[in-house]
Amino acid sequence: MQKSALFLTIFVAAGALALRAADADLGTVTSSGDFLLDDASVSGNATVQDGSRIQTRSAPSIVRLNSGARVELGQAAKATIHRDHLVLEAGTSDVTAAKKYEVLAASLRVSPGSPDTTARVVRRGEKTVQVGVAKGAVRVFNSEGILLANVFPGTPLEFEPQVAGAAPPSSFAGCLLRKSDRWIIYDQTTKIIAELRGSGFERDWGHRVQVIGTTDPSAQSDVGAQVVDVTSVTRFGEGGCQPVATSLNAELPAVMAPSGRPLPPPSNGGGMSAGTKVAIAAGIGGGAAAGILAGTRGSSRSN
Predict the structure, then answer these.
(1) At 1, is the pLDDT very low, low, confident or very high (cuts 50, 70, 90)?
(2) What is the 3-state secondary structure (H, E, C) of the chain?
(3) What's the predicted TM-score (pTM) here?
(4) CATH of the domain spanning 25-160, picked from 3.40.50.620, 3.20.20.70, 2.40.50.140, 2.60.120.1440
């Protein structure tokens, strides 16, 4: 009787350990060459567990997770794989996932903004991160959870987080509009809406402007992704905001005020979003997801 009980205990314990081991297996990694898995050299394929660290060499490696997510790591890439995200330390990662699978790079979090998204994230050095999309959309957040940008096919962006501060600087360029009795700007580079706090916006309402100020990390808005305390507004374009206002269900003035002064040249396609430099990326490499850079330029807009 005692032996039977002992065998039963051993059997149950062994089963529990096997279940835990199986549950820890996230999927597989394959490569046509050698790669490092948790600092051990591997050829061909191996099992990936939660927290596995992969470092590619001269050949890319493909990670297929049981959740359905697929990650291709380019040459000389370093990443740690987790159940619902990966941490990119160096190189390029191409991610395709039907469900939410995020990429953490530097102090940024890249999250799918729609189902069945295919995106590329490139880590260049310690601070610079490039993000492109071949299908769907992604949302890029900083370490405080502030939305910095929406990225759509055809408009890859480059991010460079700056030194953190209590009031991170922001510089947006786009249409100055009014929505739900709030002043807003739709930024033409980051594709986000920022609520504006300040005065004197009426004279530039309905025109294209550059807004400089600081983002309030603690403020919440029901019309925008950020709340910005504005220090200056510079108009660089007359009108042209009707399509944006219509898509955002925002208001334009019945009569727009003329400039009455020479206008500066338009924005160069870059700015500052909550303390992070954001610019249009000239190119983020080729490989299996080269279509990311060739995607059709869309007019999608989002908060």
Answers:
(1) low
(2) CHHHHHHHHHHHHHHHHHHHHHHHEEEEEEEEEEEEECCEEEEEEEEEECCEEEEECCCCEEEEECCCCEEEECCCCEEEECCCEEEEEEEEEEEEECCCCEEEECCEEEEECCCCEEEEEEEECCCEEEEEEEECCEEEECCCCCEEEEECCCCCEEEEECCCCCCCEEEEEEEEEEECCEEEEEECCCCCEEEEECCCHHHHCCCEEEEEEEECCCCCCCCCCEEEEEEEEEEEECCCCHHHHHHHCCECCCCCCCCCCCCCCCCCCEEEECCEEEEECCCCCCCCCCHHHHCCCCCCCCC
(3) 0.84
(4) 2.60.120.1440
